[in-house]
Amino acid sequence: MARYHFNIRNGHGFTSDDAGMDLSSDDDAVLHAIEGARSLLSAEVLQGRFDLNGQIEVTDETEAVIMRRRLPRRSKSGRCILPSGLANDFGR
Predict the structure, then answer these.
(1) Phi, psi of 27 (to 5 degrees)
(2) How many C-beta atoms lie closer than 10 Å to residue 59's C-beta?
(3) 39 φ, ψ to 5°?
(4) In this predicted model, what pLDDT tens digit does every residue of 11-24 receive, in sequence order?
(5) Dihedral Cα 66, 56, 29, 67, nearest 10 deg
(6) Would residue 89 count as lying in a domain?
(7) Looking at the 3D structure of the chain, how many domains does it have?
(8) What stretch of H or E contains 81?
(9) Which residue range(s) make up the domain with 72?
């Protein structure tokens, strides 16, 4: 087991996950991050706000970045765009 941290950077600033979570692999950490991003985005929508400028970052115990992915963003026409490769991650 290794400890992973799930940090969020968005229009509200940088939120560091100081506690972290023990998981068995980098792949499990990435899946956990994607589930967390879904939850975060869902909560924002329910609260009537939706920050499309964020990213989620997964680091290991040594603070090495395992994954960094942008959250969905808005196009000039106002449509929500998922970054390349994230459509399946976010269940689209």
Answers:
(1) -60, -40
(2) 20
(3) -65, -45
(4) 778 889 999 999 99
(5) -20
(6) no
(7) 1
(8) strand 80-81
(9) 2-81
d(CA 57, CA 73): 16
Are the C-beta atoms of residues 21 and 31 closer than 8 Å to each other?
no
3-class SS shares of the chain: helix, strand, coil, % to 5? 25, 35, 45
Kindly provide the b/e burial profile for residues 16-27, where b requires at least 16 CB atoms within 10 angstroms of the residue's own CB.
ebeebeebeeee
pTM of the model: 0.70
Question: Residue 57 pairs with which residues in a beta bridge?
Answer: 7, 68
Q: Is position 27 within any domain?
A: yes
Residues in the chain, pLDDT under 70: 50-52, 72-92
Polymer length in residues for the chain: 92
* pLDDT value for 1: 92
